[in-house]
Amino acid sequence: MLRLIRNLLCGLCLVLFLALVVAWPLAHGRPIGIWHKRTKTDLNQEFINSSHYYFFTVDRNQIAIGHWRDPRLVWQIQQSRFTTDVSAAQAAQLQAMLAQLAASGRGVPPGFTSPPLPPPPIHKNFSAPDRFFLADGLHSGPNPKHPWPADPAHTWSHLGISFQGEVTGQVQLHRLTLPIWLPLLLLATPPFLLFRAVYRNYSRRRDNRCLLCGYDLRESPTLCPECGALSTTTTS
What we know:
The protein is α+β, with helices and mostly antiparallel strands. 33% of the residues lie in helices and 23% in strands. Strands 4-1-2-3-7-6-5 form a seven-stranded antiparallel beta sheet. The protein is rod-shaped. The mean pLDDT is 81.
């Protein structure tokens, strides 16, 4: 049973290793990955929806994995999608004109309503804002929050490895960034060790040596005089 579990884990590591090897050159032109969106309604305030995003992204020579939730950011992006033709400068001019009319004592003409204020500014442009509002479930491509805004105040970085974590109010985010060679090395180690063990047993069985210690069994084909293990090889 343990051998079966070991072989399955090594096979999984090999599949992931090959997938990263294929994705690495493809990610130089455009980030690739998968991400999952899950939306739930606040039990205390049913009109507030909180979307949670889980992502795995390969971008050039780095791998980013983590999750985040930021209702205010999503709301700002949603409001920016429905802006009117009135620009922020025009809205400011109208507000100044109304203030002058009120100061002169003339008052605001009846029936006149103030134009809607523009949505709060977004200080970071994202490559595909519409991806924030896809249906819940698994999606392919880079994380919707790409390119990821830098936040040195909440980021630890050392030797190419960085971790960003922030839990304040409704904002939750954790992101681990690794150089791609590190997971490639970790994933390649178990299959390599398994292949080495299989080849070592094959070589020792072929040369009529003990499978445990490698001692020559030509003089003692049934019992290893070095470690005492029973031999499973046969002499030629």
